[in-house]
Amino acid sequence: MHNSSPVPLVDSDRFRLLVASITDYAIFMLTPDGTVDSWNAGAQRFKGYREEEILGRHFSTFYTEEDRAAGIPARSLRMAEEEGRFEAEGWRMRKDGTCFWANVIIDPIKDENGRLLGFAKITRDITERKMTQEALQKSEQQFRLLVQGVTDYAIYMLDTNGMITSWNAGAQHIKGYTVSEIIGNHFSRFYTVEDQALGIPQRTLKIASAEGRYEQEGWRVRKDGSRFLANVVVDAIRDELGQLIGFAKVTRDITEKRAAAEQLEKANTALHQAQKMEALGQLTGGVAHDFNNLLAILSGGVDMLSLQLRGQQETRMLDSMRRAIERGAGLTQHLLSFARQQPLKPEQCNVNTVLSNFETVLQRAGNAGIQLELALAPGKHVARIDPGQFQTSLLNLVVNACDAMPHGGHIVIKTAARQLQAHEIGSLAAGSYIVISIRDNGSGMKEEVRQRALEPFFTTKDVHKGTGLGLSQVYGFMTQSGGDLTIESKPGQGTLISLYLPVVEEDAAIANDVEETKDEYTEHVLLVEDEIDLLTLGAELFRAIGYEVHTASSAEEAVAQLALHDNIDILFSDVMMPNGLNGIELANLVRERYPHIKIVLASGYAMPALQNNLQDLDGFTCINKPYQLSDLARVLRRAI
Questions:
Q1: At a CB cut-off of 8 Å and minimum separation 6, what does 621 contact?
Q2: In 10 A of CB 167, how many CB atoms?
Q3: What digits encode the pLDDT tens for the residues 185-234?
Q4: How far apart are CA 480 and CA 43, in angstroms?
Q5: In what order do the strands lie in the sheet with 116-125?
Q6: What is the signed CA dihedral for 535, 284, 456, 623, rounded to 10 degrees?
């Protein structure tokens, strides 16, 4: 009798055929002592042995020598028998001696009575997966090392609640916290108190979670309480199913970058302003020069008429004309000052002394409701300036301040020493400067007004209440004196104008003033002027006061006249002549060839040599156009 019905032969054959045909898995049987008892196609493919080569051999053949020496094959069978299953991964040997990484499962085979009949062993070649895992682990390790090694960026992870879970060297460098101090803390501690109160940290995570990424710039706080400007990028991290598992946060300190960008923008703005003012200066200088020539003709004509007319009515008319000419001449002098083309007579001056001596005049510039206070820094603050032009500039600024305070107010004029870096103020070089600041608490200026305040003829005052040349005159004087000025102003908050003048050593050399001479009076003058109308009128003026006049319309013609006439005692020449030699070059030539001839130079504005190297005026007498008959007579007396 049989205890159970036998499995039909056809089913057994099918099972054996199934196992034998599998090629992706090595499936074979072992006897209780580990001898190979069956072999399938997958086993032959993985291990390289044919069935007749391996049946009857111990399965430890597939293990490395190290594993055999360690008793791993026997231990694998023992654990499978005791625990009912054994699974492991490790290196296995092929017939040709090469190794592959295998996943091994050993199951004990027992009968109904629990008696061990043998083992079923399934081996899978997972070398490729092993290599992939190792490559991934290596990549992850390299990435961790990379992230940890970065010092210019703070790179760290947050959990879904914003708690810090990782921390790199850059984060410690930028924020000051060590790993042990910061892990487990909320990232909001890096935000300012103001940002925390506004809920910005929470909003950052919310936006990053919704949009996948969030970038912003703002102030952050270090461990020591100091602040830095940061660029922050927060990326949401999700798993394969799209579930949020945390955030990656990258922070960069851009404080220096922003400062550099602001400095560059400031330099570009200063350059643009300087170029604009230079262009305006060239334009106004040329216009003023031509206008001065016209005024000189009018002034000379008025003087000639004064000599011929004696009636009271005519005299009053001529006086009105003369006042109009003087006013026009004053405007052109302001224009020339803005254009940095007005000849200055620089002296070595203690700025505090000049201010103190001029205080009474400045006090009278305003009404009774305006208080003016001087706050002068102790010590000597010596600059090389034209004191008269400096006082005129101060008066212009004080008058402007008074106009901004029609109902009274307070003006403070203050001096201070300051050390500047290169281009910290406009285009000024690095060095020591004396700063003269004029502050009022008046109406102030809008930004668009402040930006145009130095332009000639620009004014916000009512018609007939200003020429728009006051600040432009100050600007021209300052730049011609080697300094600069700044304007700070806001509506309703008053105005602060700061003048920067380079400090000079007290024993620095001073350019010589125009020397007066005491030669005998002469009657022969060589008049050189390229403007024909002015040449004709000038000759009449000279003759009117008793001089013999020779005329020339160019420097070259003047040289020829000097060769013809040996009785010329005075050269009276215009400075600016468009063709050939200019007046200064002519004067130098005459001084070299005819040292006995006295030289007088006339100009509506000075050549670059005059404005940049005042020593070129050494030994020459100067007169500004337009000049009146009395001015001409006085200058000629000085020359002789």
A1: 514, 516, 517, 598, 599, 600, 601, 635, 638, 639
A2: 22
A3: 999 999 999 999 999 999 999 999 999 999 988 899 999 999 999 899 99
A4: 98
A5: 26-30, 116-125, 99-110, 86-93
A6: -40
Contact criterion met (CB below 8 Å) for 368 and 343: no
pLDDT of residue 104: 92
pTM beyond cutoff 0.70: no
Q: For 17-27, write each residue's pLDDT tens digit.
A: 666 667 778 88
Beta carbons within 10 angstroms of residue 582's beta carbon: 18
In the 3-class helix/strand/coil scheme, how is 390-455 assigned residue by residue?
HHHHHHHHHHHHHHCCCCCEEEEEEEEEEEECCCCCCCCCCEEEEEEEEEECCCCCCHHHHHHCCC
All residues at 6 or more sequence positions from 431 whose CB lies less than 8 Å from its CB, including other chains: 419, 420, 502, 503
CA distances from 170 to 147, 182, 224, 470 (A): 9, 13, 16, 55
Say if residues 606 and 337 touch (Cβ distance below 8 Å).
Answer: no
Comparing CA positions, the residue from 355, 526, 371, 379 lying closest to residue 439 is 371
Residue 288's nearest CA partner among 606, 614, 629 is 606
- Distance between CA 389 and CA 345 in Å, rounded? 9
User: Using CA atoms, how far apart are residues 243 and 266, in angstroms rounded to an integer?
Assistant: 48
Average pLDDT of the chain is 78
Which tokens belong to 303?
Answer: 């003087």
Instruction: Give the separation between CA 528 and CA 586, rounded to whole angstroms.
Output: 10
Q: Is 327 exposed, middle or buried (0-12, 13-18, 19+ CB in 10 A)?
A: exposed
CB 498 within 8 A of CB 437: yes
Q: Cα–Cα distances in Å, from 584 out to 293, 480, 552, 594, 616?
A: 18, 20, 15, 15, 8
**Model confidence over 600-629: pLDDT tens digits?**
888 765 444 344 433 445 667 787 776 666
What is residue 515's DSSP assignment?
A: P
